[in-house]
Amino acid sequence: MPHTTTTPPALQDGDLLAAIDLGSNSFHMVIARYTLGQLRVIDRLRETVRMADGLDGKGGLSAAARQRALECLARFGQRIRNVPPHRVRALATNTVRQLRSPQSFLVPAETALGHAIEVVSGREEARLIYLGVAHAQPPKPGQRRLVIDIGGGSTEFIIGMGMQTLERESLQAGCIASTRRFFPGGKLSKKRWKDALAEIGREFQPFASKYRALGWQEALGSSGTHKAISEICATMKLSKGAITAEALPQLRDELLKAKKIDDIQLPGLSSDRRPIIAGGILVLEAAFQALGLQKLLVSKAAMREGILYDIVGRAGENDLRDESVAALSQRYGIDTVQADRVQDTALSLLEQVQERWKLDADDARMLGWAARLHELGLMIAHSGYHVHGSYVLEHSDIAGFSRQEQQMLAALVRSHRRSVTKTAFDALPERLLLTARRLAALLRLAVLLNRAHEDDPLPALELTADDNRLSLIVPQAFIDARPLLRADLIGETDGLAGLGIQFRPFVA
């Protein structure tokens, strides 16, 4: 039976949406208006922040880079004060992925922006990049397309067809990271370039042959790096409107006339790009060699546009997360009938306490997914299956989910039975802890109430909540016929205590 709480507010004509991309080099924000079923961009902001420059190689971030980021986010936050929170998505990428303690940055960053910030995996970043490019430049039917995005800290490679990705890879080599890694002290030389090219080439080996075998009909580059290289090639009259295999070596030779990065003089190169252009050209030349590229067109779209279209999908009937949960359910042979029972019960319980516990439609969707996947670990082993399921959910690349969403899902599955460990919610940001514990409590009760796998629907249950208390009223006749359930519910007082919740089971 459908539950109204699982459906987020539908997009209305005139609604504003905002996408924020916290890249390793630049922060981007795109604001769009939803009009007649289409997105119309009304504002764009970009600031060079160079977060990746602040990494110390040990998971730390310099005070200067941190300050640049926070000041930029404060300015972005001021611009989107009139955009509803559920229409804003801010995603952090490679640099934040590398932080030893991401929350020490994310907490003040969210305060500065005034909105939640999610961290995405490299492969999810790749999916969103492709989504943005595909909407901006619709591919020809039945044709495969290669999309490359050179960021500050990583480079994403995607092969897709239509609006769907077929292959996604993320290489730990971006324009800032590669410049710092291969040209320390800003020193350039042909030998350093040759050695760097060989080293990056080796990093292509795990996927290059697979990509070449699959093939593509056209190749597109997204991001400022590709745009900058394309403009230099055009200014030097090496190519026109594209980057070619013939142009790149000539561009590299011209760049290497400089012995230091500060001395690089390339026609059409902005001063803003000069410090990082060497790493960008290096990665692109390695990609051309490894993938056998001859020509690369440049797209104006990137991840930020993909985020916008993902918001539209989540607000409608095209939420990729639903498809991903269904795929996991099939892959791990989950008993879908039992999953349906647990989901219906969990959402029914949530509806009764959602106002008191301040749970919204997004929370309901997360609870529903956790209910559908709570038995995922049974495919691995019955003993400790909640632990196995949690590990899979936290460490898999699940399309459509951010890292925090996966961590939330993993925490709920980990906590749905047995004792709740003190570390169960450690991966979650502070702002999600209370909600996570409350959702875990509802999932635990739903699983207990359906432990017998009975086909008959449950009777009417009455659940009431206070700040940290839950009371459940179960019909007398129902509980009298189920002594095991009675014992389970009485015993659950200890289980929910591990979530900081006082539980009192009653009978009517």
TrEMBL record:
GO terms for molecular function: exopolyphosphatase activity. Gene3D superfamilies: 3.30.420.40, Exopolyphosphatase. Domain 2 (3.30.420.150), Hypothetical protein af1432 (1.10.3210.10). The keyword Cell membrane applies. GO terms for cellular component: plasma membrane. It is a peripheral membrane protein. Residues 321-491 form the Ppx/GppA phosphatase C-terminal domain. GO terms for biological process: polyphosphate catabolic process. Pfam families: Ppx-GppA (PF02541), Ppx-GppA_III (PF21447). It catalyses: [phosphate](n) + H2O = [phosphate](n-1) + phosphate + H(+). It comes from the Bacteria. It is an enzyme of class 3 (hydrolase). Keywords: Cell membrane, Hydrolase, Membrane. Residues 30-313 form the Ppx/GppA phosphatase N-terminal domain. It is found in: Cell membrane. InterPro entries: ATPase_NBD, Exopolyphosphatase, GppA/Ppx_hydrolase, Ppx_GppA_C, Ppx_GppA_N, PyroPPase_GppA_Ppx. Its cofactor is Mg(2+). Its EC number is 3.6.1.11. Homodimer. Belongs to the GppA/Ppx family. This is Exopolyphosphatase. It comes from Stenotrophomonas maltophilia (Pseudomonas maltophilia).
